[in-house]
Amino acid sequence: MAEHPRTALNNWSARTGKNIFYQEQRFGPQHAEVWIVKVYVDGEQYGAGQATRKETAKEAAAIQAVNVLRNYGHQV
């Protein structure tokens, strides 16, 4: 079974010593909010996600970050 993207990022961070940071922003009224989450690796943005639920946006950002890191040849 493959790791979830956030778990994969956390494990990769622990192995490599890289700092993972999520920036979360909420827009709109509470009944129709939109979340934008960006994930940074050592201060550089590697992914972003947008959704009506914070966890969904965070997962989308993590998926994008994992894909970018793998494209750079990292074992995430």
TrEMBL record:
<protein>
    <recommendedName>
        <fullName>DRBM domain-containing protein</fullName>
    </recommendedName>
</protein>
<dbReference type="InterPro" id="IPR014720">
    <property type="entry name" value="dsRBD_dom"/>
</dbReference>
<feature type="domain" description="DRBM">
    <location>
        <begin position="4"/>
        <end position="71"/>
    </location>
</feature>
<dbReference type="Pfam" id="PF00035">
    <property type="entry name" value="dsrm"/>
</dbReference>
<dbReference type="GO" id="GO:0003723">
    <property type="term" value="F:RNA binding"/>
</dbReference>
<keyword id="KW-0694">RNA-binding</keyword>
